[in-house]
Design goal:
- This protein is an alpha/beta fold.
- The protein contains twelve helices and twelve strands.
- The strands form three sheets. It has a seven-stranded mixed beta sheet with strand order 2-1-3-4-5-6-7, with helices on both faces. The protein has a three-stranded parallel beta sheet with strand order 8-11-12, with helices on one face.
- Helix 11 packs parallel to helix 12.
- The radius of gyration is 20 Å and the shape is globular.
Length: 288
């Protein structure tokens, strides 16, 4: 069985949903994952030696990637048999990252489907183009570029995020008063400070830009977290929470106060707020 380990270097102030989401997907496919998590490089390297995984994975944004360069290099020098991969906005928009860090492969775009396929190829001996959609990977000294994977259309098909992988190691995150959730993906606005306009161009023709989970799926996840962990505020961390199919906000505004009964935090744009949506947010007990 493949030993798969995530590495997070530095303490988190909120949940890293990218890792939580992908970890739950891997576990649903029978691939066990562990988290190597510390703000000290020595601890990271010692845990890598103790776990001795087959694959190490990083989820990176530009700016946070700097501190991983030295770690990935040291792992490559001391344990060259460990296969190192990375994904996230950093690798998606900067494919040269495969060389900047000591990586064997990088994910491009969303990896809900492609990561499982890539690991299946790895388990059969080595990655190949047949299993590398959504990845760039090294082979015989060259970098092969796989095609971008289609976007996950039905978000309800994905399992709930694997919060346990972080909460078991970080009491701060486990006991933090707010917990983060995603009710959808995608944003159509061309803000120059954001990556979405470039991401939409990159993924054009690969699926729907705006995708939403069902209200039922959201309520079930929030209720499960409330029943199993401390939480007194729900943070729905979508880029723009109000971009929902017809009837979604009305249903959520009816059910959320009755079934969850906590204050709500969300992101909006001014032009998406009007008398109707403002009234619905008030009904949800949206305080921030």
């Amino acid at each position: 069985m493949i030993k798969f380990a995530w590495i997070v270097y530095g303490k988190m102030l909120s949940e890293q949903l990218s890792i939580m989401n992908l970890s739950s997907i891997l576990k649903s496919k029978g691939i066990d994952t562990v988290l190597i998590y510390s703000n000290k490089k020595r601890n990271i390297l010692n845990k890598v030696k103790a776990v001795n995984p087959d694959i190490i994975a990083y989820s990176l944004m530009y700016g946070s990637h700097w501190k991983y360069i030295e770690i990935s290099k040291e792992i490559k020098e001391k344990a060259p048999h460990i296969y190192q991969i990375a994904g996230g906005p950093y690798t998606t928009f900067y494919p040269q990252s495969i060389d900047e860090l000591s990586l064997d492969a990088i994910a491009i775009g969303e990896a809900d489907i492609s990561l499982v396929n890539f690991i299946e190829g790895f388990s059969m001996g080595s990655p190949s183009s047949d299993h590398a959609s959504g990845f760039h990977f090294r082979t015989n000294g060259d970098v092969k570029r796989g095609e971008l994977q289609n976007l996950q259309d039905d978000l309800d098909e994905l399992p709930f995020p694997d919060r346990k992988i972080f909460y078991d190691q970080d009491p701060f995150l486990r006991n933090q008063e707010f917990k983060c959730f995603l009710s959808g993906r995608g944003c159509p606005y061309p803000c120059t400070y954001c990556f979405n306009h470039a991401y939409n161009a990159l993924t054009k023709g690969k699926g729907k830009m705006i995708r939403s989970r069902s209200v039922d799926s959201m309520i079930k996840e929030i209720k499960w977290v409330k029943e199993n962990y401390f939480m007194d505020m729900v943070n729905i961390d979508d880029d723009i929470f109000l971009l929902k199919p017809k009837g979604w906000l009305e249903e959520f505004a009816e059910r959320f106060p009755k079934e969850i009964g906590l204050p709500l935090y969300c992101n909006v744009r001014p032009e998406t707020v009007n008398e109707t949506t403002g009234s619905l947010l008030k009904k949800m007990n949206c305080t921030h």
